[in-house]
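Now for our specimen.

. . .
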Amino acid sequence: MFDSDKWQEIFSSLSKNKLRTFLTAFGVFWGIFMLIIMLGSGNGLRNGVIGSFAGDATNSVFIWTQRTSIPFAGLPKGRWFSMKNEDMEALLHEVSGIEHLAPRNQLRGYRGGNNVSHGTRSGTFNVMGDYPQISSINPMDIIEGRFLNHFDIQEKRKVVVIGTNVRDVLFGEEDPINQNVKINGVYFKVIGVWKSKKSGGQAERDSQSLFIPFTTFQKAFNYGNVVGWVAATAKPNTNAIVVEEDIMKVLKRRHKVAPEDERAFGSFNAQEAFDRFNGLFNGISMLIWVVGTGTLIAGIIGVSNIMLIVVRERTKEIGIRRAIGATPASIIGQIILEAIVLTSLAGYFGLVLGVLTTELIASAIGSGGGSMFTNPTIDFGVAITALIILIVSGALAGLIPARKAVKIKPIDALRTE
């Protein structure tokens, strides 16, 4: 293995026909380079899409009411109905898989802007009625003051936690804590400022929201006991899809909705979406390995063909070596080693350039706030795996020519012109 004559012979053989060696090596180089680039691109797309779930509880589910689509219990289809406070108590008692449950209301409904003011400054923001549990479903950082607590709910306090954008618009450089804001003519004391743990555009939208106690919201804005929608998370080792189904069953029974009515409730299940995306990208990753490995195999076949030509050109030399006592194993080892050296060197440069390219792309686009393509780099273990595949492929590429070489009889080889 470490015989200097052997290595000198290998490099002498490869350098005899430089153009042929270069073109053969380029096929292997391009195969491993494209494999690394495709793997990095797949990771970048996965990181970007899965990163959009950052800051969310991926075991969460959100449910709201819609029109019924099937008549049931003497009630017509197309009926509007709303969830009530009492439904929340029933869910906590009847659905064992719920870890956190947060009934929610939003002034003027989904994406409904409201006039919020402080002194001479005003803005249009999302005003939410929430329970403290929402901070476990929509994780956040409290950068000033505190978040809502049980006593705020119980005593129906007129307090509010504002987003960073709300603070900047209404207060500027002024400290907002313990100051008042007016929401639809009702004054609330600011007790905290929150910042979303999400990134990009979603974080910007979240920063325009204000949280007030759910019970205060219902009383101040005449919502009675109406619940706009409910957010919940599943307990550890409990499937959020099962929790969603159990919640639906309870709500359908309580509001006399047909069990088979699929339109009476709308929902979004974060775990289902997360699992769907993970499955999609696992499939993409597998496809990339198949395509990339196929490209690499094409380069390896080129190496094998070239080694067959090399064996044919060196038939007389091989015959002389056999005649003076060279064993078949030494002939096979020499041919295989030449193939491994050629594929390994070409593959190494392809691997290095591929990794360098993905790192440069990652550096150019940054760490990614909200981008659908983020951090397109590959794991070190994947790079090592690709290199091992390359070395094994090189050995296989040299095996067929090597076997053909040892089948040549010394007397026939010596007669070759």
Notes: The first strand starts at residue 60 and ends at 65. Residues 106-225 form one domain. The chain has two domains: 4-53+275-415, 106-225. The mean pLDDT is 81.
